[in-house]
Amino acid sequence: DWSSDVCSSDLPSQTPLSHLPTASPSVLTASISTFSTFLSSVDTLSSPRLSLLPPRFAVSIHREALKRVSDAYEELWSTVMEGKNRYEGRTTLLRRSREEVAMLLGVGEK
Prior knowledge:
- The protein has 110 residues and is mainly α.
- Helix content is 55%, strand content 0%.
- The protein is built from five helices and no strands.
- The longest helix is centred in the middle third of the chain and has 27 residues, at 55-81.
């Protein structure tokens, strides 16, 4: 759960994530920009880093890794959309929907 990672135990639990330095809109925007670059260059079928493994293992590992990236983005998206976290312009802050990211990673429902 990424939201628990950015919360400090010495901050009041009522502090919205958008007010924390590590989860501020500017930090989120920079991270999403980097993520967009990753999305535009990711190979959904294979990973050169796994090329030394037998193909069936490499494909399985690569697909699972992409699924985990998609799941993490879905968690981030859901957290940003929660009103209690007070992200202004939250519907456009992340640029892409959960479904779009899953599709771009090749793990969306077909």
